[in-house]
Amino acid sequence: MEATAAPFSPTQNLSSSSIRASSPTSLFLSRKKNPGKVNLKFKSRLSVRASSTSDSVVTLLDYGAGNVRSIRNALRHLGFSIKDVQTPGDILNADRLIFPGVGAFAPAMDVLNKTGMAEALCTYIDNDRPFLGICLGLQLLFESSEENGPVKGLGVIPGTVGRFDSSAGIRVPHIGWNALQVGNDSEILEDVGNRHLYFVHSYRAIPSSENKEWISSTCNYGESFISSIRRGNVHAVQFHPEKSGETGLSVLRRFLDPKLPATQKPMEGKASKLAKRVIACLDVRSNDKGDLVVTKGDQYDVREQSNENEVRNLGKPVDLAGQYYKDGADEISFLNITGFRDFPLGDLPMIQVLRYTSENVFVPLTVGGGIRDFTDASGRYYSSLEVAAEYFRSGADKISIGSDAVYAAEEFIKSGVKTGKSSLEQISRVYGNQAVVVSIDPRRVYVNHPDDVPYKVIRLTNPGPNGEEYAWYQCTVSGGREGRPIGAYELAKAVEELGAGEILLNCIDCDGQGKGFDIDLVKLISDSVGIPVIASSGAGTPQHFSEVFDTTNASAALAAGIFHRKEVLIQSVKEHLLEKGIEVRI
């Protein structure tokens, strides 16, 4: 049975005396003459012993930030139960320990140090106990990080974690499915072969002569960086195995059961670089009977053109998400299209959708709609950070912000000051910018001359209805119902400055038309920002996907209605992209 105690959290009331009792003496590092190896020495009464727990139990260090529900679900899916870390002693007594680090480096180290977990982790690793760090759980093993720093890390592995260099022509964060260059004796990567794995991070560690003995694989993204380490029973990976489909589950399985027989032939694949992503989007709302359904708009109108004028019902959210995962979707996005109206944490069905979906869907999940500061009917104030935290705890990997980001950008452009108080800034600061997507809902506005408006105007590939050669893209809020005095270009530049890690670029004019993405718009935005851009609205055929990837710098393309109605299958899109020489995950 899974342990019933609540996971350790940075908000726990831990007194200084209890911390001192848990970590009676201090840790210090020393180096021998050989600079290639860090030697850990401890002045400590702490000791490590294997516990008598069942082989089916995994100890999980959840320090209270981000989505760890996914790793929990993956472990349960593989037949394991979970014991949550409550004290440093739980780390020391673990048979095997998984540390799924999520969020920013400095807050994580602060929590680990204040609770005595840092010393316990170093002791556990120094004794070569079975350990798997994931994402930030890898980065924290290094000596320091430049993220909001320098900030000291655990110091287990030589090196500094630095930010990707966007001047090399890459988009930061590194988001998506990339290939590994696997070294010898990597053990848990034995089944990966030439398959893609899912990365989402802005910071990385670089191979060096000092840490080369630790490296079990590297990945290329503008430069070669460390994608996994292994020494004895100690492993850590930069990618997210719990979000990397069946390939990622094979990595977890190898760690949990090292005695698994060697695979005769690794999984087949053709991974060589960062793949273009194909994303399935589910617009979710309640119908007139109160049931939560997946719907799809025609230029944002989701009601049938019939006497009943009912909400268009294209299926159940959890069922459709599960099917798209099986069909090969690289990510699944839930957009609560009426979330701007009501208190989002009152939307329990949407939270349940996330929880149920994450039990069997092992690719990234994004949720959006109504994420903002809110005061409920009783006068209780909820910050956008609290709202986002609930979604993360329920299984979301990324949060999509719409209207609130528009208001924040308008204020930023007007004042030139980052207040740090907007939902975008707050969530990005705590969880990292890779966890924040800004959804832009623009509408094309035709003009006769570029100087007609104070916004970025482009020359159109196809003239407007009255022969207009130019247009700007006016941003909207409240589900496209209200136009705002800001263009898509201006909004995209502003939200990148405020901390967005990705842009979901819709187009009201193309929505539901099936005539292709607005290439002019996608090119404008993807050429103007240094963060990934997801093209959305208008896909009707597989050719529309190859067109947007061939003619713009979009990192991903999203569709909804054509997948829901089975007019186009996800697998058909990917087969077509492969035929066109565009790398995708298969």
Automatic annotation (TrEMBL):
Task: Locate the active site.
Answer: C135, H240, E242, D283, D441
> At which positions is L-glutamine bound?
C135
Chain intervals for the UniProt region annotation (PRFAR binding): 402-403, 439-441, 511-512, 537-538, 560-561
Q: Name one GO cellular component term.
A: chloroplast
Coiled coil where? Answer: none
Pathway assignment reads: Amino-acid biosynthesis; L-histidine biosynthesis; L-histidine from 5-phospho-alpha-D-ribose 1-diphosphate: step 5/9
Q: Which residues bind substrate?
A: G370, N506
* GO molecular function annotations of the record: glutaminase activity; imidazoleglycerol-phosphate synthase activity; lyase activity
Q: What is its EC number?
A: 3.5.1.2
Q: Give compartment(s).
A: Plastid, Chloroplast
Domain (Glutamine amidotransferase): give its ranges: 60-255
Tell me, in a sentence or two, what this protein's role is: IGPS catalyzes the conversion of PRFAR and glutamine to IGP, AICAR and glutamate. The glutaminase domain produces the ammonia necessary for the cyclase domain to produce IGP and AICAR from PRFAR. The ammonia is channeled to the active site of the cyclase domain.
Family statement drawn from the similarity comment of this UniProt entry: In the C-terminal section; belongs to the HisA/HisF family.
Q: What is this protein called?
A: Imidazole glycerol phosphate synthase hisHF
